[in-house]
Amino acid sequence: MDLKRAWKKLLMGQCRRPGGLLGEYIGRRMNRSHYALTGWGLSHVAVAPDDDVLDIGCGGGRTLARLAELSPRGRICGVDASAKSVAMSRRCNAAAIASGRMDVRQASVSALPFPDATFRLVTAVETHYFWPDLASDFREVSRVLRPGGRVLLLAEVYDTPRFDARNRKWLELVPMTYLSPERFRKLFAEACFDDVAVHEETDHGWLCCLGRKPL
Length: 215
Fold this sequence. Notes:
Layout: H1 3-16, H2 20-33, H3 35-42, E1 53-56, H4 62-70, E2 76-80, H5 83-92, H6 94-98, E3 102-106, E4 119-125, H7 134-144, E5 145-155, H8 164-173, H9 181-190, E6 194-201, E7 206-212
Parallel strand pairs: 1-2, 1-4, 2-3, 4-5
Antiparallel strand pairs: 5-7, 6-7
């Protein structure tokens, strides 16, 4: 393996669970690179000013800050498996945390540290790739959603013919879940979400999946 490829593989491995100084760099980079995708994805869901929201895989914390702006009277929570990401998110959102309206914790999507029916919206931006068990983890997401609450999943590495060559270069560097829009729709349905919608932004190769917990 040449040095350039080895460096790329190291960087991509940090996307799974950032740590150390390199993890700090990756977190800052993701804050920038995910910004446009996140804005596009959030345009597909209505966020009320008093919605309680959970962001799974909160990374560097920029999505949490955007959610806090969209829901100024709601409680915004974030979880991440990486201690480095949790520290970055807390630093990015120190004022909101100090005010008591935001909570950021180190935790796995497989065992979310919140009671049943806590949130009106759950978001996951470029994180499902590394979830331990998608089927079980989506049921855990459903558990913490209130009836009628929605889950929003965003991805730019997914199985689509137009971007398959680009995406497979990432897959060669780090193993990650790689699903088609049809498989995402089936996954949401199998987790008992209804009103499932799958949107594609074909210029950039972005995917937005939405589902609702039944009333």
